[in-house]
Amino acid sequence: MKREDWDRRYSETELLWSAKPNRFLVAEASDLPPGHALDLACGEGQNAIWLAGLGWRVRGVDFSEAAIAKARDRAAREGVEAEFLEADLLEYEPAPAMYELVFVLYLHLPPSERRLVLERAAGAVAPGGTFLLLGHDLVNLTEGVGGPSDPTLLYTPEDIVSELPGLVIEKAERKLRDVADAERPAIDALVRAHRG
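Given the sequence above, the corresponding structure tokens read:
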């Protein structure tokens, strides 16, 4: 979808996504010591705000002006410090080796664009830092529910592993996620890695 489409979606409702942080992020990041974190495709900022509340210094980046405005407003209301930047991830280049946590949740791009974003994301992970990706798995298209219907925007854990230069893979697996009013769960790809 184009930036204008996302701006419209974010403007049509108070919260497009849940106010709570993503449960898989919570499971993977709760035990990490706070440092600098980079949330790529941060949307309304619920994950960045949760981390900031734990003492992380967080930068959230998204190309939707409406989403970034909502993230900034919510952070101010909740009294947490988090930086939110409106930028297209195809143009945004994070500082190299700067972040103890870099995460990308539910960003679905064509493969060449995804590889570019993930290469930059991997490069932003500091020595000893953690990288986390979560998104709709390719098998979700036929066996799960929700997510993009274009198979070129989906991926497997193995696809992502091959696109993370210089990182040590800790996990590459599928996760099931219950969806309200759905007869079957969504199937997500989760990859966790670190820089040695």
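The radius of gyration is 16 Å. Try to locate this feature in the token string yourself.
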